[in-house]
Design a protein that fits this description.
Largest sheet of chain C: none
Helix content of chain C: over 70%
Number of strands of chain B: 10
Number of helices of chain B: 7
Largest sheet of chain B: 3 strands, antiparallel
Number of domains of chain C: 1
Order of helices and strands of chain B: HEHEEHEEEHHEHEEHE
Helix content of chain B: 10-25%
Shape of chain B: elongated
Chains: A alpha/beta (about 150), B alpha+beta (about 220), C mainly alpha (about 350)
Number of strands of chain C: 0
Structural class of chain B: alpha+beta
Strand content of chain C: under 5%
Number of helices of chain C: 13
Distance between the termini of chain C: 49 Å
Oligomer: heterotrimer
Chain lengths: ~150, ~220, ~350
């Protein structure tokens, strides 16, 4: 019964951790917009945490610069299992307009397994909610697969 | 201590929340929202301008030779797109930005918009094949003199537009500034400033009209 | 035989009511109500009321990471110490005319026990070896110092008023205070106690570390301070103890100032013609419901409203606020109480 409670709860309480990997701030603002009264992601259980150790879903924005790459990987590795990685915007998926720059190490999928990509430059908050909801489902599946 | 928002907090407690219940209530994007790209390959004239103007290198083109003609596969990677719509501005109606913003993917292929069309070798190309090399060869042989001489001979008062949608130059107005050659996405124009030649490679030309649009003297007719 | 019965009775007290299970359920429910009300005050829909339960069970199912720099035993045991202390406090706080444990000076015991959850979080944070925890625990200590002074003064004022009335000088037994109120009406009707109650309402969010006074756990500035390195079940226990602390503080408020309702329940049952053991059980059941409703109302007034209306204070602002405004109110109430008002 306890296990079932945990499994049910995992899909209802995803906590976010946001990493800015050299983003232009467009996607960061949209992620914050998701938490504002208009979109209110908290009604779905989402909560922005301050520490990667508390998080379930890691949201990465930005093209993953050389400076940020080790920090991004370190922060992601500190997130306890089960975890889910969401890239937001075009930058972490491909580098976007920064692709080929001497200081860009991305895309992120070269280094870690990315679960959900949310496209858009910057993505609409509704699209972010869609992506996070999909990530939550993946999270619940991962929890079910554990043990 | 002054706490200014207490009254507002209490009044909000009894009023309706301003939240849009998004997953329950579907939300339409604004009319001119630039979301997922729709590509209509049948309208594509294969000028390649979209690929040239794309800031994020989101558009790639693969050309395969088949017996029916060149099979052109154009791929739009939404994961690399800035949704600036510059490609749409340059396109002749083949690229369209829809208001669909649900661009969620678990694998990279979900974010690709792929369109394929077959560019047939110009139908006229086969019959006037003997003529075409001649047309190419002619200006090459006799450079300025021939060109100047031939043009008035063909259309003395004004240059007549061609029926296959490809550009013609009016040598009387042309100043050989080479802008058309620089703008040509297919690299079909070759202009020599010193020798005052204007040469069109009909095989490469896609008839996009970029040269005519950009000609400062408006001496190219399409 | 009676020893065994007593043992079973105390085990039920500790594990079910008013011990662990009651704390767990009503604390998390209180936390959920708080979150919902804050969301509504901010014109949002807000999470479901059961959200803290989901959070807690989810955290139980997460991997627990112990940092390499941490001292393992302290790191993992500190949250349990804090939770245990809170459950013990809950045992001492009477639910109107029912109290699991009573003593001559249980207010002083509660005062000391209230420090333990804060100390446990400081202990765990210090054991985690994170610099964020270092900043957080220094702030937490300042918060304790700020809050503890007005809290002591308020409790002293309450003890003086009841002691004066009973002729014993000072009364530090919560059971006696509640019993006196059941007989003579709630203390909040007394002028000095109105001031004390206002001061206590201001103390509650600081003691629980809720929003404007959460500089120690500022998640946007210092990654939730002492909790920065916690993950999984220990973090869930900390979240639970935070919720239970809300219940403890609000039910302490009810016991101190609204204890007269217990007398009301008794008289109501008497008028229905209920006496004996059954009446006692029914009185306790009604008491639980009334206590929870009152706790929720106090949470909304003292925690949610201030949360929704203010921004986080800096640590020296918290200190200044508590040692001027709240301490001032507490001193006024103490002076009034001393002159028998």
């Amino acid at each position: 019964m306890f296990k079932k409670l945990i499994e049910e709860s995992t899909g209802k309480s995803p906590w976010l951790f946001h990493i800015n990997a050299g983003s232009c701030n467009g996607c960061d603002i949209e992620l914050v917009a998701v938490l504002t009264p208009r979109f209110d992601a908290e009604r779905l259980g989402f909560k922005l945490t301050g520490s990667p150790r508390h998080a379930d879903i890691v949201v990465v924005t930005g093209p993953v610069t050389n400076q940020s790459l080790p920090r991004v990987l370190r922060a992601i590795s500190q997130v306890p299992e089960p975890r889910c990685i969401v890239t937001m915007g075009s930058c972490p998926q491909s580098g976007n307009v920064f692709r080929g720059s001497y200081s860009v190490a991305g895309p992120l999928s070269k280094y870690v397994h990315v679960d959900v990509d949310v496209a858009g430059c910057a993505c609409k908050p509704e699209a972010v909610i869609d992506g996070l909801a999909l990530a939550t489902q993946i999270l619940a599946e991962k929890r079910r697969a554990m043990k | 201590m002054d706490i200014p928002f207490v009254r507002e907090a209490i009044s909000q407690l009894f009023s309706k929340p301003s939240t849009v219940l998004y997953p329950v209530v579907p939300v339409e994007a604004a009319p001119n929202y630039r979301g997922r790209i729709a590509y209509h390959p049948e309208k594509c004239i294969n000028c390649g301008m979209c690929e040239r103007v794309c800031a994020g290198n989101a558009i790639t083109t693969v050309v395969e030779k088949t017996e029916e003609g060149d099979k052109v596969t154009r791929t739009f990677n939404l994961g690399s797109c800035t949704f600036c719509a510059t490609c749409m501005d340059f396109c002749h109606g083949a690229i369209e930005f829809t208001t669909d913003y649900h661009m969620i993917a678990t694998k990279e292929e979900d974010l690709l918009v792929i369109g394929t069309h077959i560019r047939k070798p110009p139908a006229k190309k086969a019959p006037p094949k003997p003529a075409a090399p001649a047309a190419e060869a002619k200006p090459a042989e006799a450079k300025p003199a021939e060109d100047k001489a031939a043009a008035p001979a063909e259309a003395a008062p004004a240059v007549q537009p061609r029926d296959d949608g490809k550009p013609v130059q009016d040598p009387s107005k042309c100043v050989y500034c080479t802008i058309c050659a620089k703008k040509c996405p297919a690299g079909a124009l070759e202009v020599d400033r010193a020798n005052k030649t204007w040469k069109l490679d009909e095989d490469l030309c896609v008839g996009c009209g970029t040269c005519a649009e950009n000609c400062p003297k408006k001496c190219i007719i399409i | 035989m009676s020893l065994v019965m007593d043992a079973i009775k105390y085990l039920v007290y500790i594990l079910v009511f008013p011990g662990f299970l009651f704390c767990f359920l009503s604390g998390l429910l209180l936390c959920g109500i708080d979150r919902k009300i804050v969301a509504r005050m901010q014109k949002r829909v807000g999470p479901p009321v059961l959200q803290p339960f989901y959070d807690f069970f989810k955290l139980c199912g997460k991997e627990t990471i112990v940092p390499a720099a941490a001292s393992r035993t302290t790191f993992l045991l500190a949250p349990l110490v804090g939770l245990a202390a809170l459950v013990v406090i809950q045992l001492f706080i009477p639910v109107f005319n029912f109290s699991a444990f009573s003593g001559v000076a249980d207010i002083i015991v509660i005062l000391y026990l209230l420090l333990i959850p804060a100390l446990s979080i400081i202990m765990g944070g210090a054991a985690s070896g994170s610099p964020y925890a270092g900043v957080g625990l220094s702030r937490e200590m300042v918060t304790i110092i700020s809050v503890e002074l007005p809290l002591v003064l308020v409790l002293l004022a309450v003890g003086k008023v009841v002691g004066n009335a009973m002729g014993t000088g000072l009364c530090f037994s919560l059971t006696q205070i509640v019993a006196w109120q059941a007989e003579h009406g709630s203390l909040i009707a007394t002028p000095s106690m109105i001031v004390a109650a206002i001061a206590m309402l201001m103390v509650i969010p600081g003691e629980t570390g809720n929003h404007p006074f959460d500089a120690a756990e500022a998640e946007t500035e210092i990654c939730e301070g002492m909790l920065a390195e916690y993950s999984g079940a220990p973090l869930g226990v900390y979240k639970l103890s935070h919720a239970v602390k809300m219940l403890t503080m609000t039910s302490l408020f009810v016991a101190l100032f609204l204890g007269g309702i217990g007398g009301g329940i008794d008289r109501m049952l008497l008028s229905w013609g209920l006496t004996g053991g059954a009446a006692g059980v029914i009185a306790v059941l009604i008491g639980i419901v009334v206590l929870f409703v009152l706790c929720a109302i106090i949470t909304i007034i003292s925690i949610s409203l201030i949360h929704a209306a203010t921004a986080r204070l800096r640590i020296e602002q918290i200190f200044k606020y508590y040692w001027t405004v709240v301490t001032g109110l507490a001193v006024i109430s103490l002076v009034l109480a001393w002159y028998g008002m």
